Amino acid sequence: MSTKKLLLLIPLLLCIHTSNAQESNKQKFKKLEWLTGKWIRTNSDAGHSGYETWNKISDLKLSGKGVTLKGNEVIFIEELEFIVKGVDIFYVVKLTGDKKPVYFKLTAIDNNGFTCENPAHDFPKKITYKRSGNHVKAVISGNRESIDYIFIREGSK
């Protein structure tokens, strides 16, 4: 094989190897499916309660809602989504009353959790979920501040 052909073939082989080595967005979404269902917050402030619900909309979209209650009164709602935008996956948060959602890029994922980040956002800058069986610890953090949300899957003990 001539040197010229070899020089053309090497970059092509590197591109094929790189694209095969990277995990597809569909594979990443499969790792997020454990999130579907209803999660009851177990560490709410006194007199408050909360939950998150997540639904699989398609192979590349999850839709959720976070709700905080004071007694029986809803005091806070956030619409949540995992979507693909361009080549990246984003955790999207839209608070009631806000005109625009906030996008947090998925920066790490495994079978039991994920991390999403938006360094330009005021707070939080980072959202992390870590699952252990039927329990989830979600942490929002940034600016040397951190808030933990502990959840249990509805119907679990």
TrEMBL record:
Keywords: Signal. Residues 1-21 form the signal peptide. It comes from the Bacteria. Residues 33-141 form the DUF6265 domain. It holds the Pfam family DUF6265. InterPro entries: DUF6265. This is DUF6265 domain-containing protein.
